[in-house]
Specification:
With 510 residues, this protein is α+β, with helices and mostly antiparallel strands. The chain has helices at 3-28, 44-54, 74-83, 107-127, 169-182, 218-241, 296-299, 358-372, 406-437, 445-449, 470-479, 481-492, 494-509, and strands at 32-36, 58-61, 66-70, 136-140, 155-160, 191-195, 200-202, 246-255, 259-286, 313-336, 340-351, 382-389. 39% of the residues lie in helices and 23% in strands.
């Protein structure tokens, strides 16, 4: 090969090496699909935490305003985000709608644009509350009238697309007050809040399982408490016994009533005298001759006693003391928050593959009771552990022959690209080699029309133009039409004839 051909081949080899490295890198890199756009950067931490807890690989795009997950994990990502109320990534248009008002818009169009902008602003604000992501707000603005009884009050409807039965009642009340404070002449009692299941969350106190305003829903509070306790105990058993070896069910009875208690107590040990009053009475006197001495003997009629004598004396004394003591008094006012546990029942089922003796079973019960906070003696809580249960088998992985996994499909794609690059390099190298050998020069049509090569002996001897005898030979050569045709071609296309002569000389030298 010539120097130019060698340089071209070396360049192709380097390009093939670079393409191979790029293909291997792209094949080993997982593909990502965007599942959320327009994400509020303040919620990025919550979204990444939810995806990490669910085991879904992800990456942030567009400066943290978009979230992409690994291809094939879209469903798991949507479920994980929806369970946390974070799937409402796209914000609704707010007052920026007013910036697009056309010149000459009517007052009704301006009013509708203002209402839409206000709805979007309130919805975006409510969506920032934990558990209320993707909220939708519909407003009916109040209309003033000359007569007060014909005026139309403002109302609002808020839809939380997720199941918000477990939301804190204080948060729901906060949403209602937030919406009421954002709309002129709107009262919180005129705000209606429902969740994705159609359950009315506000106003409360309608007898649908809710208490008075501001108090937690008994069913929702018990569901949250049961779920948190059950997850803690289940995690402990999965860590010790193994996955799918135990199943925990928790049922609790909570007291969601708010109680105010006042207690009055006295300190009887440390008594301090506050006031003391003493009264001292005395009476002295001398009796007359007509009367006797003072006393029953002389005063009672018919008393057989000696009569009064002259010279009797009177002597009377009385002393009394009144003391007022002071004792310490304590008045205690206590507000008992709702959520106290009245009773709790825990049921645990163990798979038949778990073999525990009496000692181990007793230790397991004690651990479960401590983890769940059971008070068997005080509250009469119960703990029931059932052994030798046959658990349903875990669903097996998909068999081969089904849909190709996303990771394996990426490897196949890379292998296909590499094979195509190899074929391209092979054909390029082959073309260069054939070009260097001259195999790609087209054979002219005039050369095909000539006779096949004949031995030298059979060829016509060249005429001798120096003698007169050769005149006859020139005439014979001129009379041959093929010789004449060849002379014409040499005269008309000398470059093409020279190229073919160089090719023949090269082949002869080889």
């Amino acid at each position: 090969m010539s120097l130019r051909g060698k340089l071209t081949l070396a360049a192709c080899a380097l390009a093939f090496l670079a393409a191979s490295l790029f293909i291997v890198k792209m094949a080993s890199k997982p593909s990502y699909t965007t599942v959320m756009t327009g994400v509020d950067p303040a919620k990025t931490t919550q979204i990444t935490t939810a995806l990490t807890s669910a085991g879904v690989p992800f990456e942030l795009q567009n400066g943290g305003t978009a979230v992409a997950v690994q291809k094939g994990k879209e469903t798991a990502a949507n479920v994980a985000l929806a369970s946390k109320g974070l799937n409402g990534g796209v914000t609704q248009p707010g007052f920026e709608i007013l910036d697009k008002q056309k010149l000459g818009a009517s007052s009704q169009q301006q009013q509708v644009a203002y209402q839409r902008g206000l709805e979007g602003e309130i919805a975006n604000t409510v969506s920032q509350i934990d558990g209320a992501g993707g909220a939708t707000v519909n407003l009916t603005l109040g209309q003033d009238n000359l007569f007060a009884d014909e005026s139309q009050p403002a109302t609002a409807a808020v839809l939380i697309p997720n199941d918000a039965s477990g939301m804190d009642p204080a948060a729901i009340k906060g949403i209602a007050n937030l919406v009421a404070a954002s709309v002129p002449k709107l009262k919180s009692s005129a705000v209606t809040i429902t969740d994705g299941s159609g359950t009315m969350l506000w106003p409360q106190g309608d007898g649908a399982g809710g208490g008075s305003e501001g108090l937690p829903n008994k069913t929702a509070a018990e569901a949250r408490y049961n779920a948190s306790t059950q997850s803690a105990v289940q995690a402990m058993l999965d860590r010790t016994l193994g996955t799918n070896k135990a199943q925990v069910i928790v049922h609790s009875d909570l007291d969601v009533n708010k109680t105010d208690e006042q207690k009055l107590s006295y300190d009887t040990k440390n008594v301090v005298p506050l006031t003391s009053e003493t009264t001292d009475e005395s009476l002295k006197g001398t009796g007359s001759t007509s009367g006797g001495k003072t006393g029953t003997a002389s005063n009672l009629p018919g008393y057989a006693a000696s009569g009064g004598t002259s010279g009797g004396n009177n002597d009377y004394k009385n002393k009394s003391e009144k003391v007022t003591n002071g004792a310490g008094k304590t008045i205690t006012k206590t507000t008992i928050a709702p959520g106290a546990v009245n009773r709790m029942d825990v049921a645990v089922m163990l798979d038949k593959s778990v073999k525990l003796d009496a000692t181990q079973l007793s230790q397991l019960k004690a651990s479960i009771g401590s983890a769940a906070g059971l008070q068997i003696a005080q509250r009469k809580d119960t703990l029931n552990v059932t052994q030798n249960m046959s658990f349903a088998p875990v669903a097996a992985a998909a068999k081969s022959g089904g849909p190709i996994p996303a990771a394996f499909s990426g490897i196949l794609k890379g292998a296909g690209i590499g094979l195509g690059a190899l074929l391209f390099l092979f054909f390029v190298t082959r073309h260069l080699r054939r070009r260097e050998r001259g195999e790609l020069i087209d054979e002219p049509s005039w050369l095909k029309s000539l006779e096949a090569a004949r031995p030298t002996a059979e060829l016509m001897p060249m005429p001798d133009f120096t003698s007169d005898a050769s005149a006859n030979d020139v005439a014979i050569a001129t009379a041959d039409p093929r010789r004449k045709q060849l002379d014409n071609i040499i005269h008309d296309e000398p470059e093409r004839v020279a190229a073919h002569l160089r090719q023949w000389v090269t082949e002869d030298n080889k």
